[in-house]
Amino acid sequence: MKTFTLNGIIGGILIAVLLATAALGMVWTPFDPMKLSFTARLAAPSAAHLLGTDEFGRDELSRLMVGAKASVWIGFLTVSFATICGTLIGLVSGYARGWVDGVIMAINNALLAFPGILLALGLLAVFGANQYGIIFALGIAYTPSMARVVRGAVLSLREREFIEASRVMGNGELFTMFRHVLPNCLTPITVLATSMFGWAILSESALSFLGLGVPPPAPTWGNMLAAGRPFIQQAVWLGLFPGLCIALTLLGINLLGDALRDRLDPRMRGLK
Amino acid sequence: MTTETLLSVRGLSLEVARTSHKVVNDISFDIASGEIFGIVGESGSGKTLATRALISLLPQAIQVTGGSISYKGRDVLGLNAGQLRRLRGAEVGVVFQEPMTSLNPSMTIGRQLEEGLILHTKFSPDERRARILEMLRRVGIRDPEGALGAYPHEFSGGMRQRIMLASVMLLKPALLIADEPTTALDAVIQRDVMELMVELTRAEGTAVLLISHDLPMVARYTSRIVVMEKGSIVEHGRTEDLLEAPQHHYTKKLLSSLPFRGEPRMVDMSKAPMVSAKNIVVDYPGRKSLFRKAKAKRALHGVSIDIHEGEVVALVGGSGSGKTTLGRTIAGLVRENEGEIRFQGRARDEDWQDYRMNCQMVFQDPYSSLDPRMTILALVEEALRLVPNLDAAAKRKRTLETLEEVGLDASYASRYPHELSGGQRQRVAIARAMARRPRFLIADEPVSALDVTVRAQVLDLFSDLQKRYGFSCLFISHDLGVVEQVADRVVVMQDGRIIEEGDRDAIFDRPKESYTRRLLSAIPALDHNATGGVSLKWRFDN
């Protein structure tokens, strides 16, 4: 039996490379990512600077390596925050129904009515533009969609006979919720969480691009992309490499997410 | 007999294209015009695929590898798409199993019925309307004018199947293919729909190919039958001959799997009942809207039922009779609005923990009653989680023991529900209910979703366990055949009330209410003869 598909392996390799790069970036980079050099401004990729330099002569590769850590960290924390909060809210809402559900869903729908990025912008204005402000703001912005998806799954699950069987066995509501309802929601949660990881990295880029993200000079992929925009005519690598990093990371996460979802579901095992 | 052959199948073989797995193997049969012909087989026997091939409606993955199908002398397999479309509907009509999904939910009945007439006839709109109205009247729709503008969800399953039948018979096809036409309906409605189908097709001279797993039902209406097993025809003959003197062991097995009446058992009725429900009233709340609250719908109108120690009480009735609601209320899944439930002499609500330890339930659908993410071992062991005075090792031992008892050896313990067949899953569900050694079991249609031979095995298992542990049981079913085999006492429900109750033999032999008679008329009384055959007697046949 094949345990992983080709897609899963590709996704795994991409994510492993990303994590390794981020880890390496924390201890060693080819150049100091903050060091300015006016002699080597906007230098094209060469043997010395593998991915070229930016408008201040800083080494692009070093900055990408350091930025990887920020991007991954922001994506991971944002998704964890949204997934944990959204799942709990959705579980309670779908399982309790009645007025609890009514109140939670009213708030949830109101939040969903705002575009996520707008909501995040508003929240950032309150929390201040720094790394943890972004995580908090994006996490809150993404929580409603997770809550909604989980609630939908719970609503359809709670009518199933195995939930009633659990009640007949005398299991408490909490036990039933965590033993039978939650594990069966994992498929939609995994799917949404992996795409959320992508959105989070993109949104962080967008917010940095708008100047509300991680403040310079600290590099993230998003603010590097933003900073490279004015020079796209002379130095295409400044936009190309951060963009490529974001795209490959998203691809890796989606491939790995699909593979993980199939692995976690016993029904999918042994098929083929 | 000089009737002409309408459809002739010769050596038809089908296989899954990708794996070359044979699903139908060299089958041949003829259908004469005006004849009612039956194909009987369990799931996986290939009966549905074989009939799909007759009108070239096979799924893409299946291909014809041999044989011929000729309809009125024309080779069906050689027809092009246009010719096939003219054949389907106009010449050969099909009624599928599931009335809930075979009508388009977003089209009115009128438009759906008109579709076929527009495609295959040259009638004017007024003529079409007149014909549709007449046909709806013939299939027993009360308000045909109103039905034209109505949508499928406004009708019950039985009514939908009548409408489906009307849409097919409008075109006066020469052959009607009915694939499990009544399997999704309850016993009484099932019989009404079958009678209607026979009456309509006889009037129009339409031949019927009736496909079902239900041998007695097919035998009742057909003149000839083929029995299929694993893609092959194992027996072929006139209906009476096949029933009375079956040749093939599979046919014998099918016949011996039919439910039969067991010996009456002695149940001690002198002691106080173990479970006693008094004057139970259950209302389902109406839907709330912005301005008013719709009136609650009363599902149970003050129902009382007693179940004694070791007694199996069957609760029977059609769909909507309230039998499932009563079972769920006694189980505590539905709150009663009025009334009291007592267990072993105490009010049930006084000691829920004791009640949960001693009252367990087996559900109807083995596909949805087991958590798909848990192994069989975990599923059964979970039932023991709350049992006091039992350490982990004892729980594991009891779990494996119980699995053994339901006929699943230790190799099943690590499997997941989707890896098991329907019958095996229902065994797991029974094991889960039995692991606590309950004094009282509620079984809601426990064998309705199973094949005939599997059903017989599960019923045997149920009887064995009941004998060994002597639990009391409330057995809910619409299938009186099954009830006749397992029940000591029968309670008949209709429209949320108990209309008749008594000993099994009294209810089956001397029913008082006309509704009970109608229920009984849907199932045959069996006489087994020495050669392994049976003769079917239909009760209260008119």
Task: Work out the helicity level of chain A.
Answer: over 70%
CATH class of one domain in chain A: Mainly Alpha
Instruction: Tell me, briefly, the overall form of chain A.
Output: elongated
Q: Largest beta sheet of chain A, briefly?
A: none
CATH architecture term of the largest domain in chain B: 3-Layer(aba) Sandwich
Tally the structural domains of chain B: 2
Which oligomeric state applies? heterodimer
Summarize the structure.
Chain A is mostly helical. Chain A contains 9 helices and no strands. Chain A has a domain of 186 residues: MetI-like (MetI-like fold, Orthogonal Bundle), CATH 1.10.3720.10.
What does this 3D model show about the protein?
The complex is a heterodimer of chains A (272) and B (542). Helix content of chain A is 72%, strand content 0%. Chain A contains nine helices and no strands. The radius of gyration of chain A is 22 Å and the shape is elongated. In chain B, strands 6-7-8-3-9-10 form a six-stranded mixed β-sheet, with helices on both faces. Chain B has two domains: 192 residues, Rossmann fold (3-Layer(aba) Sandwich), CATH 3.40.50.300; 263 residues, P-loop containing nucleotide triphosphate hydrolases (Rossmann fold, 3-Layer(aba) Sandwich), CATH 3.40.50.300. In chain B, helix 3 runs parallel beside helix 6, helix 4 crosses helix 6 and helix 13 packs parallel to helix 15. The mean pLDDT of chain B is 88. Chain B is of the alpha/beta class and 542 residues long. The radius of gyration of chain B is 25 Å and the shape is globular. Chain B starts with a strand and ends with a strand. The longest helix of chain B has 18 residues. Helices cover 35% and strands 26% of the residues of chain B. At the A-B interface, helix 6 and helix 7 of A face helix 12 and strand 16 of B.
